[in-house]
Protein 1
Amino acid sequence: MKIQIMYRTICKICVLCCLLAPTIVFSQEMMDLQECLRTGLENNYELQITRNEALIADNNVTPGNAGFLPEVTLDGGYSLRSSNSDRFPAETGETEQIRNSTTGTADVGVNLNWSLFEGFRVQTNYQRLKELRRVGELNSRLAVENFVANLTAEYYNYVQQQLRMGNLRYAVALSRERLRIVEARYQVGSLSRLDLQQAKVDFNADSSLLIQQVEILNRSRIQLNELMGVDVERQFLAEDTTIQLNKSLQKEHLFKQTMEQNTLLLLSKRNLTLSELELRNLRSRNYPYLRLNTGYGFTHFNYNTGNLDRQRTWGPSAGVTLGLTIFDGFNRRREQKNQQITIRNRELEVERDRLAIESDFANMWMAYVNNIELTGLEVESLENAEINYETAMERYRIGDLSGLELREAQNSLLEAGQRLLTAQYNTKLYEISLLQISGRITEFIQ
């Protein structure tokens, strides 16, 4: 009987070790947060797409795209015309018939068209292109900030799950030690079979939690690999063994930076500027326009009838057009009024976004401070739980404590450790959010 019990216990431990082998054996590479961020900033596909879009906006900022430069075209062609005609001269009264008369025409020319003045539309377009470039840069910055925040949060989640794995392994070790003691006492008859079965149930429960934690840990690692843009099966461990908290953040300084550097608020202001430029663009239609047209052409004619066999003409041409739209059905007035309303909406959006950011900052700061305090309480709780379990274990060894009471002390110890990890991780998340909303999230890269 004793041999069978020991054999089953050893088998369970071996199965558990086999399940944990991939984590133990293959996860030898260590990566810190900065290395993960550097890898992700280089390989992440979303960031690459956003950077390319910013490059497009930068390439569009040219005088030609704004309309400062003229348009020069080169065109040429050849046409052949065949016709029949009857002529009736008044002098002779005789009919002159011309059949299969052909005319071949070849022409080539260079033309230049240039809008010299269109009510400052060109200058406004150039400023608009520059603003769109700044919007592209802000969108790229926003994408980087979101990426750094997401990867940093997932990295510390991975650290948290590694620490949970350690806690659960410790819990399994404690349950294994209890099971060893119970089996020894059961063999000498000092404990009942019920005590032995309960110890086995508790050991299996802790082992089950440990096996589930392997899946959770691997899921976090896969998510990190995806964010970094590398093979999702890449095996590594986080170099950090604790979740370090930054308790030096200052509310007033951080709030000032948020109002000045928040990317979403800066984008909202840029949209307002773009709307104002669009109104200037519409108002340019109230002015006259002046356009220059020049060119140089060459034309060659071939005839098979008449007095001429060939004819050639060439030479330059030039002209200017001055115009003014006097009436267009009041469309200009309507469009300008609508754009003024749009500008007012953009101003309201800026104020709305500013208030929303202030609200988010206040909530994040309160949660950050509360979780720092909660973390301190959980540290104290864990210390007390460790002392309580050590005392309970000593009493259990001498037979002065029941298995259920020992299990309760063990669960209290495990729960205290898990609560501390949760409090530390939540505090880190609020720290990340505060740095992100204030435009300082890239400090994690340094």
Note: Residues 1-27 have pLDDT under 50 and may be disordered.
Protein 2
Amino acid sequence: MDKTRIRQKLLLSAVAGVILVPGSALEAMAAEKTEQQPFIQAAGIESVLEKCYETEVKDNINLYLVPTEEGEYLNMAFSDTEDYTYIRSAPDENSDWVGKLYGDSAAQVLEYLDGWTKIRSGSVQGYVPADSLITGEEAAERAEEYEDHTVTVTAYALNVRDGQGTDAAILTQISQGETYEVTGEPVDGWYPVKVGDSDGWVSGSYVTEQTSYSYGETKEEEEARLAQEALKGQETQEAAANVAGSSVSGQAVIDYACQFIGNPYVWGGTSLTNGADCSGFVQSVYAHFGVSLPRTTYEMVNAGYAVSYEEALPGDLILYDGHVGIYMGDGTIVNAMNEAEGIGICSATYTNIIAVRRVI
């Protein structure tokens, strides 16, 4: 799941009933604790209901109850804005803003006020206009719209296939610890995922699934994130400049790589003599020249900088769905092909090219 912002996530947990009435913050026991943002806890639903009757709001109880499969809770709300809403230090539009609640964010309601709602979302706490939130029964009905479903890879390397089952074609490979968006319902233990621009399937035996919400961020967190994004952009520019100024020639890379033609293809391997897979072969060839490349084809799509196939020079990376080779010129690549053919030479246009990257 690619998002332009990197913000706090919180795994879902079952929650029990909470009743809030305007101008108050009555609380009920939560069934489970969450990791980063625990729900408010208090005596229990019976005592809360009793207090509601005492304050003569019994006719409005249904407005504030949000039924779920796990129980009843009220203090969950969702942002109802396209971009973001300022979270302010006081229930006043002229007060300082302390954070932002984004359009895809969830929040914990702390108190209902006249035209304002006090919330906590991630690390930020403050006040937002009441009309910028979805609460009550509508929040329960629309909760799934705000859920993020992801899987995290537990295997060292995992095939992404174009269908369910090991007989389906391999599109690309992903690595241990990487997290990807789940794009639909699992089928027979296989999860549909989004990897870059590709839609494929991964085996549920080698991933863990998480369901989470996105949350807002404090002003300080936003400043740190923007600074980090600016630094990353600068590093990308510097990497491109280093590539342009590299003293390694593409022909030298080709001459070195061709020494290993005929050696075996080994899934997950990086040895130029004892066996390598496609990305392991490319990575090891370039490591010989002091050029560090990512381990997987998915990551190599972002290595160096992009050129068109028409502009390709010897030494450029030619990337396909789940495969990579080193361009030799004259429409050919040297690559770790498969177990039957090992390391060899083939046409650069044997299948659709998805990217050409220059790394020297």
Note: The chain has seven helices and 26 strands.
